[in-house]
Amino acid sequence: MQTITLQDQTYEVLREMIIKLDLYPGQKISESHLIDLLEVGRTPIRESLKRLKKQNLIFTFPQSGTYVSRIDMSRALQARFIRECVEKEVMTELCGVMDEKSEKMLWKILDRQRETFKNNNVSDYFDVDNEFHLVSPPRKLGTLVP
Fold first, then answer.
1. How many whole angstroms separate alpha carbon 22 and alpha carbon 25?
2. What distance, in Å, lies between the first and last C-alpha atoms of the chain?
């Protein structure tokens, strides 16, 4: 069994906060604030910030501070296009092997996803989207990949 370190947990929480816009694009962030917010030590925060910088999710201006990266709309649109293409293909393949119970569950999740989108609830939208991917039958998906 793989142990998840405090640094990994801290990184995942910060990454999720950025993706869900709890830390918004352009927001200045400080180590001391994050230490207080997440109730962890300086080392997990620093290591997490290094990882986030490598992913271009945050950036640092010397003598100014660390900030959440702004959203690059061109990259976001490209990523959305790729995701839509892949997900459509996967769902087309899954429709042929998915049982009725799984299909009903996916439709319920899609309805909840539409509702969270309509209510402009970004955080819940991502949670429901992740739930959708967890409910999709992965063992059957593995049979689709040559």
1. 9
2. 28
Q: Whole-model pTM?
A: 0.69
Laid out side by side, the sheet with 58-61 consists of 28-29, 65-68, 58-61
Q: Return the C-alpha torsion angle 32, 37, 40, 44, nearest 10.
A: -70
Residues paired with residue 145 on neighbouring β-strands, in sequence order? none
Q: Which value, in Å, is the radius of gyration of the alpha carbons in the chain?
A: 19
Q: pLDDT band at residue 1, thresholds of 50, 70 and 90?
A: low
Query: Binning pLDDT at 50, 70 and 90, where does residue 27 land?
Result: very high
Tokens of 53: 């910088």
Say which DSSP state 121 is in.
-
pLDDT of residue 10: 96
| Longest CA pairwise span in the chain (Å) | 58
Residue whose entry in the numeric block shows the structure tokens 């319920």: 108
Q: Which domains does the chain have, with CATH numbers?
A: 6-68 (1.10.10.10), 73-142 (no CATH)
Alpha-carbon dihedral 3, 36, 127, 119, rounded to 10 degrees: 180
